[in-house]
Amino acid sequence: MHRYPWQVWLLALFLLSGCTANYVFDDDDYRPLGDPQSSRRGH
């Protein structure tokens, strides 16, 4: 069952790095998921 522990760590690292990927980008129009955009609404 524990024949490939490095693959398990690699998969865990890949999944955890994917969780923070939406905060890496740096441009003017970018906003993270879940960030409210109410200041632009209705103007």
What does this structure look like?
It comes from Pseudomonas poae. This is Type VI secretion protein. By secondary structure, the chain is mostly helical. Helix content is 35%, strand content 0%. The chain has one helix and no strands. It has one helix at 5-19. The radius of gyration is 18 Å and the shape is rod-shaped. The termini are far apart. The model has no long low-confidence stretch (mean pLDDT 66).
Helix content: 25-40%
What percentage of amino acids are in beta strands? Answer: under 5%
Protein structure class: mainly alpha
How would the global form be characterised? rod-shaped
Number of strands: 0
Protein name: Type VI secretion protein
Organism: Pseudomonas poae
Set out the fold topology.
Elements: H1 5-19
Question: What are its keywords?
Answer:
43 residues, mainly alpha, 1 helix, 0% strand
How would you summarize this macromolecular structure in one to three sentences?
The chain has one helix at 5-19. It has 43 residues and is an all-alpha fold. The model has no long low-confidence stretch (mean pLDDT 66).
